[in-house]
Amino acid sequence: MQPPRLTTLAQSLPDSVPFVGPETQERARGAVFQARLGANENLFGPSPRAIEAMKLAVADVWMYGDPENHDLRHALAAHHGVSANNIIVGEGIDALLGNLVRLMVAPGDRVVTSEGAYPTFNFHVAAVGGSVEKVPYRDDYEDPAALVARAKACDARLIYLANPDNPMGSWHGAGVITAMIDALPENCLLCLDEAYIEMAPAGTAPAFVTDDPRVLRMRTFSKAYGMAGARIGYAIGAQSMVKAFDKLRNHFGVGRIAQAGALAALADQVWLAEVLERITASRAKIGEIGRANGLIPLNSATNFVTLDCGGDGAKARALVAALAAENVFVRMPFAAPQNRCIRISAGGDAEMAYLADALPRALRRS
Amino acid sequence: MQPPRLTTLAQSLPDSVPFVGPETQERARGAVFQARLGANENLFGPSPRAIEAMKLAVADVWMYGDPENHDLRHALAAHHGVSANNIIVGEGIDALLGNLVRLMVAPGDRVVTSEGAYPTFNFHVAAVGGSVEKVPYRDDYEDPAALVARAKACDARLIYLANPDNPMGSWHGAGVITAMIDALPENCLLCLDEAYIEMAPAGTAPAFVTDDPRVLRMRTFSKAYGMAGARIGYAIGAQSMVKAFDKLRNHFGVGRIAQAGALAALADQVWLAEVLERITASRAKIGEIGRANGLIPLNSATNFVTLDCGGDGAKARALVAALAAENVFVRMPFAAPQNRCIRISAGGDAEMAYLADALPRALRRS
Question: Chain A contacts of B256, Cβ < 8 Å?
C-alpha cells in the first residue's frame, strides 16, 4: 500500500528551520540564559498601556479577532498618513513575507537578496519553488545598486532589502532607497523590510508613495513596540497589492489580544520615544563593552550592535558558544565575510552588566 | 513601465474571504450584536486558569514564543498517549490546513470534500492551484463511503472530513471513521478535522494509531477550550508527516500568550467538563426555542445546533438577516439542500433568553 506522499516540491525541501530558538538551547544545556540578547527582541518591552490592553483583551479571547483588522488598519493609516486600504495586517512580518512570496513567485522564478540577509525570506522562497540569487554586502552595507543589477540580469520578480539591515545594523538614507525604487527593472517588486525603522535616524524612511505598485514596505510590532510574542506586523503598499493578500492570507490569523495590544502600543508614542532612548544608550554600552574587549562595534540603526571579532567564522562561532556557556544568548547569523561578527541585542543595565562580566571570560575560553 | 504582477495562479484567484466576521456586519449596521452566536465561538470561555496564565504571559510578550512549542507538545502527548513527535502545533486549524495543502497538493491535483463543508479548506486548496471535488451530504450526514469512492475515481491526494461535522453538527462513530481510513485509496491522506471532538459522545474519536501515515487529525483550542482569539491548534499524525510541516510552516507563528494559555487550559480538565455540560444544556435550549417556533433542531455533537427552517435557501437567508436586525448574529454556511438550515452556537442564559425573545419577531419579519 502506497502511503500518501508529499508534492515533488515539498519532497525536495529540507526539514529546515530558519532559526533555532533560545528555548531549544536552554533545554539542551539544562540551564536558562541570564541575558537573552540573541533574537533582537526588545527587552524594554511594550508600553504599559499595551500590556494593560492585552490583559483586558484576554477576557475576550473566546472571540476570534476581527479578520479585517479594521481598527488597527485605520489607526495605522492615520499614523502614517496613508489610507487603510494601503495596509495589510498579518501574523508578523514572517507571515507577510510568506504570503507575498506565494503571490509573486512561481516555481522557477527568481528573487534577489543579499548574501547573509534574513534567512526566513529565503525559506519562504524555497517553499514555493523559487530560486534565490544573492549579491554580497559592500563594506558591510547592503548594496542596492548590485541588487538592482542582479535583478535586471536574472529577470527577478522580487528584491528583498532590509533597511535598516539585519544582521549588520547598517542602513541607507531615504534618497538611496528612492533611487533604488526608480531603478527597479520592469515587473520587479521591492520588498522593503523596515522592521527596525523606528530606531533609525530621521531621513531613513522614504515618504510614502502609496499608489506605487513597485514597493511593499513591511513593518512590525515585534521590535520597537516590544511585542514579538504577540505576532503582529503589517505591510504598506499600493491598494492593488494589499488587496491581493486576501486571496490567500489566513483571514482569522491575527489574534484578538495582539490586535488590542498593537492598537494601544501605537497610541503610546511617548513610551516609544523613551524606549528608543534606552536602545540608543544600550547600543553605546554594547559598543563600549566590545571595545574594552578588543571587538569593534559597527554603526547600528537597530536595537542590536554587530561586533567585528576580527577573525573568521570559526572564531566568532566559538565566541557565541563560549558566551552561551556563560548564560549569554547572542547570535552569529552571518555569511562570510560578515561571519567574523557577532550580533548582540540591546538590553537594560542588568543584562549589560552581565554581558560586561561574561565577555572577557568567554573570549579567554573561545 | 510594467508594474510587478502576481503569478498566473494568484491572478486567477478571486479576492475572496471564506467568512465575513461579525465585526464587519456590526460596522455596516452601526450597532453591535447582543447575541454573538454565529461563529461557533465558545461563549463560556477558557478556564480561569488559562485566563490567569495568559495575563501573566502578557508581561513576557517582548519574547518570541518557543518555535518548537516544546512544553505544549509534550503536555498534549501525555494527554493523548502519543509521542510529542506526533504533534505539530500551529496558528489554529486554519493555518495547519494551509500548510497541509501546500505539502500535499500540487497545481492540478485533486482533493475531495463534502458540498457545503468547511470553505476555508477549499480556499487553501484553490490558493495552491488544486482542484476541489465535492460529494453531497447523505441525509444531512457527511458520507464517508462516497468521499472515498470519489477520491478513488479522481486519484485525490487528500480527503477532508470534519467529524463531528461543521456546519451540520452531525457525526459518525469511531468505527465508521476507522473503516473509512482502511478504505482509503493509495497515496490519499485523510485530513480528519476534529475541531469539535471534545463535545462529541464517547466513541466518536478513533484510538490514535500514530504510525499511520494515512490520516492527520486536526484539533484546536478555539472550540471546547474557548480560546478562538488566541490562535492555537494542533495536528496529530505520523511522525514523518508531522516533521514535514517544518519545511514550510511559520516557525515563530504561535504566540507566547497562546502557548501559555493552551498549556493551562489543557491542564484544567475539570473546567472543560463543566463547559461541556453547559454546552449540552444550551444545545437543548436552542432545540426547545427552535421547536417552539416551528424550526426543527438536528442532532448535534458540537457547540452549535443546526435548525431546519423547512424551506429553501432564500427563506433561511432571510431569517439570518432578520435575526441580525434583532441584534442576533447567526450564520447559514450551507450548500443546497442543507441551506434550508441556520446554525446557532451555544451560549449562556442571557444569550438564550435574547434568542428566545428575538426569534419569533425575526420569523414574522422574514
Answer: 228-230
- Ordered domains of chain B (ranges, CATH): 18-45+270-365 (3.90.1150.10), 48-267 (3.40.640.10)
The answer to whether B10 and A104 are in contact (CB under 8 A) is yes
**A213 confidence band (pLDDT: 50, 70, 90):** very high
Instruction: Report the residue from B24, B95, B214 with minimal CB separation from A250.
Output: B95
Strands (E) located in chain B: 35-36, 87-90, 110-114, 131-135, 158-162, 189-193, 215-220, 233-236, 296-297, 304-308, 328-329, 341-345
- At B299, the amino acid letter reads N
| Closest listed residue to residue B90, CA positions, set B266, B255, B217 | B255
H or E element: which one contains A193?
strand A189-193
- Residues of B whose CB is below 8 A from A63: 36, 39, 41, 228-229
Taking residue B150's Cβ as centre, other Cβ atoms within 10 Å add up to 20
Question: Which residues of chain A make contact with B9, given a CB cutoff of 8 A?
Answer: 106
Q: What is the pTM of this model?
A: 0.97
Confidence of residue B32 (pLDDT cuts 50, 70, 90): very high
Contact at CB, A244 and B6, closer than 8 angstroms:
yes
CA pair distance A242, A246, nearest whole angstrom: 8
User: Cβ A46–B61 below 8 Å, yes or no?
Assistant: yes
Q: Which of B237, B229, B239, B359 is nearest to B290 (CA)?
A: B359
Min Cα distance B245 → chain A (Å) is 8
Give A-chain residues touching B3 at CB under 8 angstroms: 187, 213-214
Identity of the amino acid at A292: A
Long-range contacts of B294-298 (CB under 8 A, 24+ apart): B294/B363, B295/B342, B298/B140, B298/B168, B298/B169, B298/B170, B298/B341
Q: Do A222 and B98 touch (CB under 8 A)?
A: no
- Can you tell me the distance from the alpha carbon of B55 to that of A58, in angstroms, rounded to the nearest whole number? 7
Summary mean pLDDT of chain A: 96
What is the pLDDT, as a whole number, of residue B17?
Answer: 79
Across the interface, whether the CB atoms of A4 and B258 are under 8 A apart is answered no
Rounded Cα distance between A185 and B158, Å, is 40
A4 closest CB neighbour out of B4, B188, B256: B188
Q: What is the ipTM of this complex?
A: 0.97
Report the residue from B1, B189, B229 with minimal CB separation from A186: B1
Contacts with A8 from chain B: Cβ below 8 Å: 106
Instruction: Decide if B66 and A24 are in contact by the 8 Å CB cutoff.
Output: yes
> Which residues in chain B are contacts of A264 at CB distance < 8 A?
none
Residue B52 has pLDDT above 80, yes or no: yes
- Over the stretch B167-202, which tens digit does the pLDDT of each residue have? 999 999 999 999 999 999 999 999 999 999 999 999
Nearest to A16 among B5, B94, B247 (CB): B247
Residue A32 predicted with pLDDT over 90: yes
> Are A168 and A138 within 8 A, CB to CB?
no
Task: List the single residue in A1, A68, A251 with the smallest CB-CB distance to B186.
Answer: A1
- Segment A264-271 mean pLDDT: 98
The residue assigned the cell 467568512 is B19
pLDDT bin (cut points 50, 70, 90) of residue A1 is: low
Do B167 and B196 contact (CB within 8 A), yes or no? no
Q: Are strands A87-90 and A233-236 parallel, antiparallel or unpaired?
A: antiparallel
Residue B1: what pLDDT?
63
Return the percentage of chain B with pLDDT > 70, whole number.
100
What angle do the packed helices A144-154 and A174-182 form, to 10 degrees? 10
**Amino acid, single-letter form, for residue B151:** A
Could you identify the residue written with the cell 528608543? A276
Q: What pLDDT, in 10s, does the model give residues A103-114?
A: 999 999 999 999
